[in-house]
Amino acid sequence: MAGGIGESARSRLQNSSYFAHRDIGCAYQDRVLTLWGRLPSYYLKQMAQAMVAEVEGVATIVNQIEVMPPAQRARMGRGEGR
């Protein structure tokens, strides 16, 4: 059952019209769904959380998604900002 709930949440993110959501990871255990990854805005972070909140069986969401604007991510990729 737990695998089905986690898979359902993952499917919602993968099928999102927001392409950035497709890179978000999630894990489900003991009615807690944890999200992680990086998104370019707080809006997309909240949208990801709202999408998986509707999955039956999820009681708590731990949203560990980092908000990192695209320009900042590009700089970090070149070794800066560390």
Short description:
Helices cover 40% and strands 26% of the residues. With 82 residues, the protein is an alpha+beta fold.
Describe the protein.
Helices cover 40% and strands 26% of the residues. It is of the alpha+beta class and 82 residues long. It has one domain (2-77): 2-Layer Sandwich (Histidine-containing Protein, Chain: A), CATH 3.30.1340. The chain has a three-stranded mixed β-sheet with strand order 1-2-3. Helix 2 links the parallel strand 2 and strand 3. It is elongated, with a radius of gyration of 14 Å. The mean pLDDT is 88.
Strand content: 25-35%
Termini distance?
A: 40 Å
Q: For the largest beta sheet, what order do the strands appear in spatially? A: 1-2-3
Sheet with most strands: 3 strands, mixed
Global structural class: alpha+beta
Keywords, separated by commas or semicolons:
3 helices, elongated, Histidine-containing Protein, Chain: A, alpha+beta, 82 residues, three-stranded mixed sheet, 26% strand, 40% helix
Task: Walk me through the topology.
Elements: H1 2-14, E1 25-29, E2 32-39, H2 42-53, E3 60-67, H3 70-77
Parallel strand pairs: 2-3
Antiparallel strand pairs: 1-2
Helix pairs in contact: 1-2
